[in-house]
Automatic annotation (TrEMBL):
GO terms for molecular function: transmembrane transporter activity. It is found in: Cell membrane. This is MFS transporter. Keywords: Cell membrane, Membrane, Transmembrane, Transmembrane helix, Transport. GO terms for cellular component: plasma membrane. It is a multi-pass membrane protein. The chain crosses the membrane at residues 42-64, 76-92, 98-123, 135-156, 162-179, 208-229, 244-263, 275-293, 299-321, 333-355, 367-385. The lineage of its organism: Bacteria, Pseudomonadati, Pseudomonadota, Gammaproteobacteria, Pseudomonadales. InterPro entries: MFS, MFS_trans_sf, MFS_Transporters. Its main location: membrane. SUPFAM superfamilies: MFS general substrate transporter.
Length: 397
């Protein structure tokens, strides 16, 4: 049995490693306009570069997402770190769109592998704090990556490579320290069979997943739009050219989500889901107002509200579903949960990027925002109807 100090060290290392992967995932966002200006590609190509990351991540979740249930957590975490370091080297040596696509493809696969195995390892290590860390660490990581990269681009030398050298160094240290951790699951047969693409949702978690899914889809679709097109949208709507704006918006979105998660950590999952749906609808409505008012301060206020909805919706969905799995089902369930989340993260934003060619960025944003508001409010109504049905069943046994 591990000591309290060893337990805290393991939990802290796993949380920081998950944060590092997600920081790396958002680091390219403030650089997109630099890449665009240097390599002369369109908004559609920009969302393609973003989209291949998410699609590669999905591929990892569908294939190697359950692998650590069979091989153990540490070998799979190590493999993910090695792949992520390769992606950092590709970014550092980038000189064409093809290199960017290759870097994002490798990074997506590494992040998908890491998200599933680190999420499962956190739950193995601490059943109480694991779901909270799984919710907060990705958002804090995206905030650190986006804002840190923005600051380096604005004020530091080597703007397109310094962030990647920094992350590469961190990951190398993590790969070395990893082997000091205790393994949390025993090896079981079936590793090769687990690579066949599948979504494994344990029977006892399926109903909870369907209930939480609409809110989860809405919040991740909004997040995908922000991480791919928010910097371009602000430039188009307000004329701002600061390198800090894009990273600042992503940081506000994710930090407000993290604060909301921490604030609601002890509230029931169903109440958290309902609050997430309402805040998301209000926040997206304010974002659309900011676009048409060309108001940068309103952009940040709207992002703060929408980020609260992102955090509440994500936490509510995660806490409704993941604790229902048994120990050897956790990585598979985490993979299934993130597959559905990242489909919502990438597919709508890819569609939006293509629509900008025909309708322009502002009109596409209007349609996208209205769709998210309708989805969030529909989910809110569905949750209310479920509560009413539950109340009737209780009063009439």
């Amino acid at each position: 049995m591990s000591s309290p100090t060893s337990h805290r060290c393991s939990l802290g290392f796993l949380a920081f490693t998950l944060l590092t992967f997600l920081a790396a995932s958002s680091a390219p966002t403030p650089l997109y306009h630099v890449y665009q200006e240097g390599l002369h590609f369109s908004a559609g190509m920009l969302t393609l570069i973003f989209g291949v990351y998410a699609l590669s991540l999905l591929t990892a979740l569908l294939t190697v997402g359950s692998l650590s249930d069979h091989l153990g957590r540490k070998p799979v975490i190590f493999a993910a770190l090695v792949l992520e370091m390769l992606a950092m080297l590709l970014f550092i040596n980038e000189d064409s769109v093809a290199w960017l696509i290759a870097a994002r493809t490798v990074q997506g696969f590494a992040t998908g592998m890491a998200t599933a195995v680190l999420g499962a390892a956190l739950l193995d290590t601490d059943r109480q704090q694991g779901p909270l860390i799984n919710s907060v660490a990705p958002l804090l990581g995206m905030a650190c990556g986006a804002m840190g990269c923005s600051l380096l681009v604005e004020f530091a030398p080597f703007p397109t490579t310094l962030i990647y050298w920094t992350l590469l160094s961190l990951m190398l240290l993590q790969a070395l320290y990893l082997w000091r951790l205790p393994e949390t699951v025993s090896r079981i047969p079936g590793a090769l069979a687990s690579l066949w693409p599948t979504l494994h949702v344990p029977h006892q978690a399926r109903r909870a997943l369907w209930i939480a899914l609409p809110v989860d889809v809405a919040v991740w679709a909004m997040g995908g739009f922000y991480l791919s097109l928010a910097p371009s949208l602000v430039r188009a709507a307000t004329g701002s050219t600061s390198n800090l704006i894009g990273g600042g918006l992503v940081a506000v979105l994710t930090l407000s989500g993290a604060v909301m998660i921490f604030s609601l950590r002890n509230r029931p999952a169903d109440k958290t889901l309902r609050l997430g749906a309402v805040l998301l609808a209000v926040g997206v409505g304010l974002i659309l107002s900011a676009v048409h008012a060309a108001s940068l301060p309103l952009f940040f206020i709207a992002t703060l509200v929408a980020g609260g909805g992102f955090g509440a919706g994500f936490l509510g969905a995660l806490r409704s579903v993941v604790p229902l799995a048994l120990s050897h089902e956790r990585a598979g369930l985490m993979s299934a949960f993130y597959v559905l989340s990242y489909l919502a993260f990438c597919v709508p934003s890819l569609l939006a990027g293509n629509l900008t060619r025909t309708f322009g960025l502002i009109a596409t944003t209007d349609a996208y925002g209205v769709s998210l508001i309708v989805l969030a409010l529909s989910a809110r109504v569905a949750l209310l109807l479920q509560d009413c049905a539950r109340a009737r069943a209780t009063s009439n046994p």
